[in-house]
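User: Could you write out the 3D structure of this protein bound to uridine 5'-triphosphate? I've included everything you need below.
Assistant: Certainly. Input first, then the structure.
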Amino acid sequence: MKAKITKAVFPVAGLGTRFLPVTKANPKEMLPIVDKPLIQYAVEEAVSAGITQLIFVTSSSKHAIENHFDSNFELEAKLAEAGKNEWLEVVRNVLPAGVSCVYVRQQNPLGLGHAVLCAKDIVGNEPFAVLLADDLIESNDKSCLRQMVEVYNELQSSVLAVQPVALSETEKYGIVGLDNPELELGKCAKVTSIVEKPKAKDAPSLFASIGRYILVPEIFYFLENVNRGVIGEIQLTDGIDKMLLTHDVSGYRFHGKRYDCGSKSGYLEATVEYGMKHKDIGEGFIKYLRGLNLD
Ligand code: UTP
């Protein structure tokens, strides 16, 4: 029988160095895009793809994430008492019905592969999704992860979301080699290699793997056996690269727009564009932007 994807891992234990000092005491994943934190967008995307168990890989400074997805009796009681039912619904719907959360600690930020490995016992022997909340992906119709689950259901093998990047940007990403370098939107190609942050001259293509993955559970074996970095870090791309020797992995060029909210400029672009589209403030905000006369 085909395994259904019901579990998603959210690695949220990174240091968020590029956003210091705001990330000194606040998790980067709690940064708001207008009125919702990045992690909530990622959770909503996962739920839209049929995920029912959310596995957060956290660290000691990330309590705000646990609190965000927990109920807040005091706040709810006060909103109910004041008759602010619309806001009460907003607060109650942060975690959709039928969805549960599990938290596991990554004691040291030893890389994304290490963070995923921390979820091994909770994931068990099932295919699962990984979402990096600092990659915010807007799509008109089906969410990026939902598109990927459909691909997984058809191919029954690991799927990486990929997008083309500029030659000058290869050093920021895991770059994949594909058996079809002309990959069109909404299509898949077989991943033949994956290289972490290569120089442009060494990049196997101009397709980058971004923060959405569907992985088969065998990935844990490969993560446990990759060569660790100088401080013991484990890169997810190294685990995937090892897995390629024995397992098919597909690169899927998703429909949707990705904002790199792990960088200040990407975060600001998302804030402006989500602000312009926001149902309550969008119109006024666009007027304000026009008034800036930036030309
Ligand atoms: P990033 O490298 O983008 O996040 O990792 P970071 O390390 O927090 O940020 P900078 O580079 O210092 O500014 C992508 C995702 O993986 C998580 C991060 O929390 C982020 O959501 N991550 C990264 C972990 O959970 N553990 C790690 O050891 C590293």
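The radius of gyration is 20 Å.
User: Perfect, thank you.
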